[in-house]
Batch of 2 targets.
Target 1
Amino acid sequence: MKRLRYAILLFTICFSCKKTVEPRKTGLITKNAMVVSARAEASKIGSDILKKGGNAFDAMAAMQLGLAVAYPYAGNIGGGGFMVYRKSNGEIGALDYREKAPLTATRDMYLDEKGDVIPEKSTLGAMAVGVPGSVAGLFAVHEKFGSLPIEDIIKPSIDLAYKGVIITKKQETKIKRYQPLFLKANKDSILFSKVWKAGDTIKYHALAKTLERILQHGKDEFYKGETAKRLVKFIQENGGILTEEDLAKYNVKWRQPTTFMYDDLKIISMPPPSSGGICLAQIMTMIEPYDLDKFGHNSVKSIQVITEAERRAYADRSFYLGDPDFVNIPGDTLISKSYLNDRMHTFSFEKATLSGHVSHGDVQVIESDETTHYSIVDPFGNAVSVTTTINGAYGSKLYCSDLGFFLNNEMDDFSSKPGVPNMFGLIGAVANSIVPEKRMLSSMTPTIVEKNNKLFMSLGTPGGSTIITSVLQTILNVHEYNMTMQEAVNAPRFHHQWLPDEIRMEPNSFNDTLIFQLEKLGYSINEKDSPVIGKVDGILVLDDELLEGGADYRGDDTAIGF
Ligand code: DON
């Protein structure tokens, strides 16, 4: 079959004498402001906030809630996230509102008496739930940088929840796919148990009421108030360990972003407990010496260099990275040029390096793991990049009907047992073991890029372990391969994460000749397991200072601006 496809391809190349010049594909272009997110309803909420005179931070908070209503697949108040920002004056920062392990969590809580990982315990139902950070996150952002009253931030989502959201075709498929798991995780039928068809409207009354209480009493409503009590009661009735104390003790952290140079670009990304910034820095620094633009986009040589850098970075990720409040991470060394040049010494274009021959690098540690992304640029020039998640699709599938939202299964991002892969196939070590109040390692990579000291891009994506490599390819598509934002988002993606030792590729996107050549060099190709890799939403500042929004066609993602 492969041979036949190869022959057809050769025939097509040799005998097509007319060369058609495809017009460049661009996303929405606006002058003043742009927001891009997984749903038009959430993007509209963000854009309206900006039109009203609010800034990117107001829009961030409003869209976190907008997505919680319009996109329950990943948008949330029952999960957590990260924000990276760059203010118009060049000031940068990051907010960590990642979930935490409950106080009574233990290292071996997902293992049986024999020490084996108990299937589904860290992914399905109440035991999988980490202490949610999203409400604290949006309040922290609003308190520090917001300019509009909190009512303006929360009210649009309350209205949307009452009015309801129209089901799209993609949503219809997803709800149907996960219904068997909703049944397994919940004692009673939930809002999503019935048959929903594209075009139907789902109304979220319980969520609207929860948001009204949050508007009335502030952040404490979720962490100490009536909502907190009802949430804890619900989780415990379903066999979970979360307590009122867990909620009351939850705190967000402002952090210094991980920054590094790639050619003339300054990349500003999420530091630990995300692995995103460090891995991105490692991969980009390892590939910088190679002429990717000469090799060509998705050419054998480009794929080789990128794959080999990814392999080495993910090997380090699994060993060194975890919550910096609990483990010492040799961050500076891990992203230093000398260390990374050395890491690539074993690479040759002649043959794949086997992951079995690659381990984490030797670095001295000094003592002392469904998601959605949205990008915003406001009329003042502030940029915000936010990735937020409940981890799996509809999180733990546990839906609190009383309060109207899904709870995360973020606990699966910890390493339940060293060497045993989590739901994204990621392997972890002691650095990412479970400890009470520790945050689980993440791959979320909200990123902002500067060029010549000016804002150039704001981007990010969902996709578990493939987040980092999707962000990487999108930046390279613009910078190395001269694509528009929309082309960069649309381009086919591939991914390597050290283990399993394979290059995952989006199916039907890479030609047979290329795959054949890579296989000959010793690379295993997997086109089966990832129908799509990432769902990137980004904004590019064009030469004339106009903004181009790139909304990923892989979802219902939408750019809105003015
Ligand atoms: O934080 C992480 O890396 C994961 N919880 C992200 C999950 C995700 O992207 C799922 N979406 N496809």
Target 2
Amino acid sequence: MDKIRLVGGTALRGEVPISGAKNAALALMPACLLTDAPLRLSNVPRLADTRTMTALLDHMGVQVGQEDASTLVLNAAGVKDTTAPYDLVRQMRASVLVLGPLVARYGQARVSLPGGCAIGARPVDLHLRALEAMGVEIELNEGYINARSAGRLRGARFAFPKVTVGGTENALMAAVLADGETVLENAAREPEIEDLGQCLKAMGAKIEGLGTGTLVIEGVERLHGAEHSVLPDRIETGTFAVAAAITRGRVTLTNTRADLIDSVIDHLRRAGVEVTVSDGALVVDATRNDLQGVDIQTEPFPGFPTDMQAQWMALMCTADGASLITESIFENRFMHVPELLRMGANINVHSASAIVRGVPKLLGAPVMATDLRASSSLVLAGLVAKGETTVRRIYHLDRGYERLEEKLLACGAHIERLAGTGAEAAE
Ligand code: EPZ
């Protein structure tokens, strides 16, 4: 298995082009199932997860053409199999996002339950309840969701008991072809959902309330093809902003939007990082001030994103003073803590909160990635730690970051990817 080797101590300087959002692309790609006309998606990030989604759609009979490095043309005219098999779903939970489109267009779907995940139980019960409200019959057996609808789905009013990004996406994609009006209350407001909604509207869907917690959808008989550019990845943007801050450098982030990470920018500024926006680029400058500890609590958008919690913790390990980090979305998202402790961090976890006390120096060490965002926090810590850090199991990283080491190298980081050897395969 590949690993990443870093030698810390260089203040990053340079420019980072931000890629398209993984979590938008993973919802936009299954949207092709809602029509038999081509859907052209540009600014699609090249990631392990988008390759897994391509493999799943291909398995169903979707034609997925790669027009150029970041443009896909997806055509579901020839879909012949409405099953999402376990061996693909277990690799990527977002595979469950084919459920809503499949049952809305084909009246049936057999999708493996995602199963467990490192950061939490992550059930899909609310996805299923929303679909049942639209008339879908759901049966669970042999680890699969068997969904069936006698005729067209029917519009319904459904209030999500808790905010769920994937649940909102599945319900939205089902509602656009339903008969009548659907009202989704307490819907997630993440920018990736607004991006999906804009794409669906370009395909002919009738949706009101995008960006708010109440979505009103007037179902239509069919959708047509469209072209859509995936919005910038706000978590990659935040991750590189933290890379600039933790190394006390100055980095310009391009092809992104500041409004996608207002909460992260606010917290960076409160910590002493200078963040300015100039002609569409984000300039993150940590060369002048000492950084102070700042508390965070993760919340649904527009609150502080849970996908930035691990990265923020790495930064707080190097700040002056203490910070309280509360994870309120997932029940097990502190697996980066033991690895940061190996690097000399001072962190104490008390159930859903961690108290971080800044230390003068992190020390390089061999560490192990456990999940996507935990692995990025270890890379961030390695950028500033004294000496050498090697991060193992970086397949986690490759799921969500396109060319991470290249982008860091371009800003002066001492980082390289070491090809794994067979002997380490069991690691
Ligand atoms: C999406 O996951 C993202 N993934 C996650 O990003 C992100 O952390 C999460 O939203 C929260 O923002 C993609 O978009 C592909 P949820 P999702 O449904 O949709 C509970 C990353 O690092 N819940 O909003 O699975 C659930 O257990 C990944 O890029 C139910 O109880 O998240 C969790 O505690 C990690 N029942 C909370 O809601 C349900 O039916 C939020 O989950 C659904 C969710």
